[in-house]
Amino acid sequence: MSEALRIMKQHLSGRDALGQGSWNYLIGRGWHPQQITKLGSSIGKPIGEWAQSEMGKYPNASRNVGASGLYNIGAAQGWVGKGKTQDQIQASGSTFANTPRGRATGRSGWQAGFTSEAVNWLNNQFLAQEEEVEGVDFPEYSPLPDVVINMPDPAPLPGTQLGQANVGAGYNATGVKTKQGSDLGTGGTRAAFGREKRKRELAAAALAINPLSV
Fold this sequence. Notes:
By secondary structure, this protein is an all-alpha fold. The protein has a domain at 70-134. The protein has helices at residues 3-11, 20-28, 33-39, 49-55, 61-64, 73-81, 86-94, 100-104, 116-134, 188-192, 197-209; strands at residues 160-162, 165-167. It has a two-stranded antiparallel ribbon with strand order 1-2. Helix 6 (73-81) runs parallel beside helix 9 (116-134). The longest helix has 19 residues, at 116-134.
């Protein structure tokens, strides 16, 4: 008799059949429905219609769960062959970890949900997968080269063409003055705008000679 069957029979001691009440009782003791489905037909008690209906919900239990009440090596190999990841397989094992049978293994975590044979096989598979990933050569990171952008010189500010040079920043209509040593030759604001003092004096003299009559 397997350890799982021994524990389950002990839990069902005093019960006449595996019906709805016994099923719920086993669930309350921590058994998983897949374990009950696998072991139920071997406990030596009649199985009620309700319990049979529940067992029909777990058609893979008879193949994945051995008489040990744990996932067997066939289940482990089948899941790896179907492409299940390490995390997915370990999550499946963890579903049995806290069951009465899982606690009886003396193992912890996902390993408590598999037989010792399945655990050893899976550990070898997981190790091989990790070594395969470590052996992959990934391209080294190459930083992008520094890009130098040549910006054109800023365009000259607009000015006023007076005399021999362009009058730019620092000059305005209220005071266009020739800087010392420059070649503007504007002669100041009056000369720049053609309003010399001499012309005003000549105009005043002409009016004095020929006064305007109204």
